[in-house]
Write a structure and sequence with these properties.
Two copies of one chain form a homodimer. The first copy, chain A, is about 40% helix and about 20% strand. With about 500 residues, chain A is α/β, with parallel strands linked by helices. The first copy, chain A, has four domains: about 90 residues, Barwin-like endoglucanases (Beta Barrel); about 60 residues, Transferase, Pyrimidine Nucleoside Phosphorylase, Chain C (Transferase, Pyrimidine Nucleoside Phosphorylase, Chain A, domain 3, Up-down Bundle); about 200 residues, Pyrimidine Nucleoside Phosphorylase, Chain A, domain 2; about 80 residues, Pyrimidine nucleoside phosphorylase-like, C-terminal domain (Aldehyde Oxidoreductase, domain 3). In chain A, helix 13 links the parallel strand 11 and strand 12. The longest helix of chain A has 17 residues. The radius of gyration of chain A is 25 Å and the shape is globular. Chains A and B meet through strand 2, strand 5, helix 4, helix 6 and helix 11 of A and strand 2, strand 5, helix 4, helix 6 and helix 11 of B. Strand 2 of chain A pairs antiparallel with strand 5 of chain B.
Amino acid sequence: MNKQRNHVHQLKLRSLGIDTYRENIIFMRSDCHICLSEGFTALTRLVVHHKNKSIIATLNVVKSNLLLDSEAALSEMAMKQLGVTDGDHISISHLKPIESLSDVRAKMFHHKIDKNAYFQIIHDITKGFYADIEIAAFIAACAGDNLDLEEITWLTEAMIHYGSRIKWNEKLILDKHCVGGLPGNRTTPIIVSIIAAAGLTIPKTSSRAITSPAGSADTIETMTPVNLSIEKIQEVVKKEKGCFTWGGTVKLSPADDILITVEKALDVDSAGQMIASVLSKKVAAGATHVVIEIPVGETAKVRTQAEGLKLQYYFKAVGNAVGLNIEVLITDGSQPVGKGIGPSLEAMDVLAVLRNKKDAPSDLKDKSLMISGALFELSGQMEKGKGILEAKQILESGKAYDKFLRICKAQGGFTEPKYGKFKTEIKSTVVGKVVSIDNRKLAKVAKLAGAPHYPAAGIYFEAPIGTQVEKGQTLFTIYAESEGELNYSLDYLKTSNHIITIE
Amino acid sequence: MNKQRNHVHQLKLRSLGIDTYRENIIFMRSDCHICLSEGFTALTRLVVHHKNKSIIATLNVVKSNLLLDSEAALSEMAMKQLGVTDGDHISISHLKPIESLSDVRAKMFHHKIDKNAYFQIIHDITKGFYADIEIAAFIAACAGDNLDLEEITWLTEAMIHYGSRIKWNEKLILDKHCVGGLPGNRTTPIIVSIIAAAGLTIPKTSSRAITSPAGSADTIETMTPVNLSIEKIQEVVKKEKGCFTWGGTVKLSPADDILITVEKALDVDSAGQMIASVLSKKVAAGATHVVIEIPVGETAKVRTQAEGLKLQYYFKAVGNAVGLNIEVLITDGSQPVGKGIGPSLEAMDVLAVLRNKKDAPSDLKDKSLMISGALFELSGQMEKGKGILEAKQILESGKAYDKFLRICKAQGGFTEPKYGKFKTEIKSTVVGKVVSIDNRKLAKVAKLAGAPHYPAAGIYFEAPIGTQVEKGQTLFTIYAESEGELNYSLDYLKTSNHIITIE
């Protein structure tokens, strides 16, 4: 493209203060000379330049005098990305056809695409070249069993390539991950505290919720800051051997952060994308030994043992290809773990376990010990079978809680999580025994109540499988931070059957 | 949902004159009482009510004093859909989870979904319940060979069910369609003129370009109005037996119109969606007998004979299931038809054929006669083998041109198509014979030059396969309506090889 032509169209920037979230929007007058001479039209995407920076933005046309002639406006995020403020001058050019989109189309049509294609797609997504509908199409094209082992490996390598990478001075860096789908499965802060208390290094970065009522980062954030820079993470880990922070702030895998936003909106999480997302972030975080938990249950994210075994195979194969030592644990995903569902309520469970409270959820404790044990053993620091006993000793002696508080302090301080202002107890209308629980529907109730956006919203769950319930006995309590959200989750409850089956 | 709660949040509407095209946007202050009390957040979609109407819109948050407290703004299309003007009062409520999206997810994961699912998805798309990323995911999920015969039939039936349907007094209603992918293949106005001149009824509605430089409707619009209401179409057809109009104005298949907008942006056109799109529109237009042309060529939309035969099978099977008599012709798609590529330039070819000009493109003429003949025969009005002779007689006698002008007059008048203001001749740098043409790249040049948005933009093509060319001989001429677009297509030419292969 002719460079001269790129920069002749100067427009004065006017801040309108419109937040369109992630997708960049440029607002231009329908009668402006650029629209007329260049022929921009509906759904046009174009390149906006300022000094030596440029971004891609979608055009919205203004048909009023909101903008003067020769003025344009950018959405808030676009201004930030381009580094401009009110009154700056920008120039506009055509967006060249994005070649990697033809690979996305090939993938939509179930063709295998090559390593170079994955690298180019991830490069272009990272650079913000893709519109949201194009990202949605890529996500849908990768869903199902569309990616084979090689393709998942290439996607993972591409995400690693275009992300940052934290360097550590130590050779042994532990990490863990749970594929999710099980409400309340909040083992991370417990495991990190146990491992770090044992003197091993575990710089854990967690994600926020994709489709669940809480991600680990959402839960931990109710107790301590999680938005830490890479420098701050390194400082915390140097001091305490472990941390539990949000991966998003450190831009370990910027393409993945973008993909996850759209996956969340679509409520989709496919195998290939998930493996690439998880493993690229582990490599980026500098991990060498990783334990991955796959809960399997009829209403968990992974529904069958066969699916669990296939994921186990992919995680190990792709993990080895990118240089990781991987152990995969398939666990029981038939019901929620602990009693809380939603950030603050799950944090309360975590604290109960760390504080060795009598009423601490034993399932959460047992699972944390099992994964900690597996980490000890995978690291080669302990014999097979000895890991879990060591983990138990560290937790029950109070050393883990002590380490937890020290890590919180290093991250910026500890605060006690709170309950939501509004609550309703859901009581049993029958007598009987709880025989099954629909995790997905229960998660939906918690989400409709406001979790994870409102951290104190969610569910306190008191009727695990096997519970003998009386008529009028509380099955669970819904917490919300606004009456609107509370009512909304109650509306859903009214129309939804078999969340808890009592016989 | 509690009806009372739906309507308590009143906001005063302020028109900002922002055109966001198809997706509805509502602009609300970040500190407004509804945002705060209901907890709306990024990418939130919500329901906007006015009197007894409602629409779904995506929330953009305003962080400036563009809006006063208790004010909100809607994008232009949203205001139109809701039937509101500046100063009206609107109310806001939560969007209930859209159940049919779980079927879209199932389809993304390659599960077969049932008839009811397709009906619900198409209903929800028609009602505007889907965000663009959700439509993109549905399109991607249906791409490849993901839909089986039954699913394509259900999708077609759903589109028919939620669209309009034109009723005709006659029993025999002819129609034709070309699956496209071949630049310049503009037989429609010629065929309609021949068939109608023979006294048979052919109320043809065409589409605008999806991924090509011109749809039939775009081409015809350079000669006569195509935005006709159903009533007007019926009036034209009653008078002249035929018409050539744009299908979009009559909302024959509103879901399809929405799907096509996103397909166009993604540059995707999959088999299942295409068959459902075409056949639903034929049924909606009241057709009984339809000839479908499938051009097959390496760089046409359909690339192999096998693919052509599969589409032929699907068209016939699904067509019969929805009550249509179908003939499918597989034709040569190795190179452009006629000389023009782009609305006005293609219209000039059409007129040359209708006017029996000596330099009229014979390929366009021959194909038009072949399809007209097939229609005569499919209708049962003529014996096998006699149709094409009858068509030839009607065209060469001038009866077809006479009918063409009468139809144009009935549709609102005839105008002569024009050339674009800016042009560049592309000359051969070698001596030799044209051995192959890349239709896709040639179409791209025409699109970059502005077609179909600027009707007079495009390519006049003078080097069909077999042409003996001299050094400096013009291969094709690019026309554009702005210098920017002309340069843009030239930029692409510079970086693109093998558009025309000369040996």
